Amino acid sequence: MSKAKAKAKQVKGKMKEAAGKAADDGQMQAEGRGEQLRGKAQETVERTGERVKKSPNK
């Protein structure tokens, strides 16, 4: 997964969380927060992979 897809997942989660707040739906809010966290984790994995590839100590 690319960093852009990970960022898109974060944005989607943020929108889902906001929709859950507007609809007073706790489950939807939790799902949105979960998507945001998965997106952040995927973004971190991507950044770590890039750093490993650039590392001179392979």
What does this structure look like?
The longest helix is centred in the last third of the chain and has 29 residues, at 26-54. The protein is rod-shaped, with a radius of gyration of 15 Å. The chain starts with a helix and ends with a helix. It has helices at residues 3-22, 26-54. Helix 1 (3-22) runs antiparallel to helix 2. It is built from 2 helices and no strands. The protein is mostly helical.
How is this structure best summarized?
The protein is 84% helix and 0% strand.
Question: What fraction strand?
Answer: under 5%
| Share of helix, binned | over 70%
Radius of gyration, in angstroms, nearest whole number: 15 Å
Main beta-sheet strand count, sense and barrel state: none
End-to-end CA span: 23 Å
The H/E string reads HH
Number of strands: 0
Overall pLDDT metric: 92
SS summary, helix count: 2
Oligomer: single chain
Query: Residue ranges: pLDDT <50 for 5 or more in a row?
Result: none
Shape, principal axes of CA atoms: rod-shaped
